[in-house]
Structure formats: C-alpha cells, structure tokens
Amino acid sequence: MIFYFTGTGNTKWVAQQIRKAIGEELFYIPDLIRKGQYQFELKQNETIGFCFPTHGWQPPRIVREFITKLSFSKKNTYCWALTTCGDNMGETMTILNKDLAAIGLQATTQFAVVMPESYVCLPFMYTDTEEKEHAKINLARKMLPHIISVIRERTTGVEELVKGGTPRLYSYVIGAYFNARMVNDKKFTVDEDVCIKCGKCEKVCPVDNIQGTPPEWIHNGRCTSCLACYHYCPVHAINFGKITRKRDQYYFNKRGDQKS
Ligand SMILES: Cc1cc2nc3c(=O)[nH]c(=O)nc-3n(C[C@H](O)[C@H](O)[C@H](O)COP(=O)(O)O)c2cc1C
Ligand code: SF4
Ligand code: SF4
Q: CATH no. for residue 232?
C-alpha cells in the first residue's frame, strides 16, 4: 500500500506511476485523516510506501502527524519512502525514519525525485521556467523504471537522495524554523474583484481550511502550506502576502502537455 500527500500534483503523479507498476493500493493521506482511518491490514507480500513532497527540508507536517497515528497488522514489512523536492531535501528521510521508528517501522529504501518548484512565498523563490520544468519531469520519467524495479525486488539499503550541501543545517535549523513559524495561512488574501467564484480553492485544500466563494480561510490550525489554493486558482486571485503577486503559478500538467 502506498500513502501519499501532494499539494500541486508532482507527488501524486510519481505515486501513481509506482502504483500502476507494482499494483498496490494508493491512499491519499488527507482522505484517510477525514475518515479517521489509521489502522491497516497488510496483504501477503504487500509493501508499505510513503510518497510526499519535501516541505522546508522536512516531511510535511500533515504527513508527520498522520504517521503518529498509523498502525499495521504485521511487523517486519518491507517499507520504502520517496520524497519529491524542487531542489534538495536535506535530512527529510532521517526525520521520516525517526517518526516511523515510533510506530515500529523503518523505510529501508529511500528516494528523492527532483520535480518542478512549488514554493514561491519567499524572496528568490520562483516557479521554474517551462524549460526547467520539462527537464525535471523528463529526468523523473527516466528514473522511475529503476525506482520501480528496486521496490518490486524489495531491495533494502538503497538511498538515492538529493541532500544538498549542508543538510543538517537546512533541516534542523532553517527547516525547523520554517516549519515552526512559516507554515500557516496568516498571509493568504483573495482579490475579490478578480475571483470568478469557481470554488476550486475550497475543493483542493487538503485540510478543509477554505470555505465559500470568494474564499475565506477558516484558520483551523491545520494549513500545511501546500500552496494548492494559490497555484490552482485559474485567475491568480489568491496571494500570500505581497510577494506572490510577482510570482507565477504551477501545478503538475498545468499546460496539459504531460502524458500520464
Ligand atoms: C511549503 C513548501 C516547502 C518546500 N520546501 C522545499 C525544500 O525544502 N526543498 C526543496 O527542494 N523543495 C521544497 N519545496 C518544493 C516542493 O518540495 C516540490 O515542488 C514538490 O515536488 C511539490 O510536490 P507536490 O506537487 O506533490 O506538492 C517546498 C514546497 C512547499 C509548498
Ligand atoms: S489553505 Fe491553502 S496552503 Fe493551506 S493547506 Fe489549504 S490549500 Fe494548502
Ligand atoms: S480558485 Fe480563485 S477564482 Fe476560484 S473561487 Fe478560489 S479564489 Fe475565486
């Protein structure tokens, strides 16, 4: 079984490719949280996989909270994990494994797949150019058959990661600050004159933090900064502070030029 989280579709696409090849069930973590489903029966020879984007050089808050409640019918199951990131993922997998250890699991095989950038709320952070976006996705397509064969063969000890230059600094200092202080919905606004009241932002929010058209953020304390509301708005009516007014939007296959 594969548990996944996605904000802008990159990780969903990767998880779907793996699911198609290994034939295991795919679960969207926010749906499981909505249903309160945390206990799972494993079938004969089934693996446990986690796919999620890197958020501030750590697993996203929603994924970490989900894991604390998870339990499985069997121990000693082959477990693997994959994170997508725009650039590098630091010690994300070390943090994930610490969280997994608390529920008696370890991801013994780990991958990072670089995908188009989705974080745009800080200076010097932009969406990728169309060229870079395509280059990243093409490379990911080339990596997938290998990733799939490692998982199929239940190979352990594989660590194909993109940690960056000073991963501990990024994950435990900068990322810790980012996740503690900057993952929130405080700066979201909507331009009511621009909003066409399509309801997309409410629909895509994984934590049901948006209501109505034009949208209102409920401030339910669960925003995971995935930026789905910002990126999927068809008319760029949503902003996070002033900075995103000068930024583009991205989600997987926004241009409609990716085959599945
Ligand atoms: C809140 C947030 C934090 C991010 N932090 C990082 C990061 O630390 N390193 C990185 O390389 N990319 C980072 N990114 C980019 C995403 O990891 C990357 O674009 C990912 O593929 C998005 O996956 P998704 O489309 O499944 O949401 C961040 C994106 C968001 C929204
Ligand atoms: S409010 Fe926006 S950024 Fe926060 S979880 Fe919902 S969609 Fe993601
Ligand atoms: S997605 Fe954009 S246009 Fe649609 S309701 Fe939300 S803010 Fe308005």
A: 3.30.70.20
Shared domain for 108 and 153, answered yes or no, is yes
Residue 199 in tokens: 């309801």
Which two tokens mark 134?
Answer: 């395509």
Residue nearest atom 5 in ligand 2 by C-alpha distance = 223
Query: Residue 224: which of 249, 204, 200 has the closest Cα?
Result: 204
Helix (H) or strand (E) holding 2: strand 2-4
- Low-confidence residues of the chain, pLDDT below 50? none
**Ligand 1 atom with the shortest distance to the CA of 227:** 31
- Does 137 lie in the same domain as 64? yes
Q: What does 148-210 look like in DSSP terms, one character per residue?
A: HHHHHTT--S-EE----SSHHIIIIIIHHHIIIII-SSTTEEE-TTT-----HHHHH-TT--E
* Residue 219, domain member (yes or no): yes
Distance (Å) from CA 99 to ligand 1 centroid: 20
Number of domain units in the chain: 2
202 found inside a domain: yes
Q: What is the pLDDT of residue 228?
A: 98
| Cα 75 to ligand 1 centroid, rounded to whole Å | 31
pLDDT of residue 112: 98
Domain that holds residue 139: 2-178
Q: How far apart are CA 251 and CA 31, in angstroms?
A: 20
92 Cα: distance to centroid of ligand 2 (angstroms): 21
3-state secondary structure (DSSP) of residue 115: coil
Query: Which residue owns the Cα nearest ligand 1 atom 29?
Result: 119
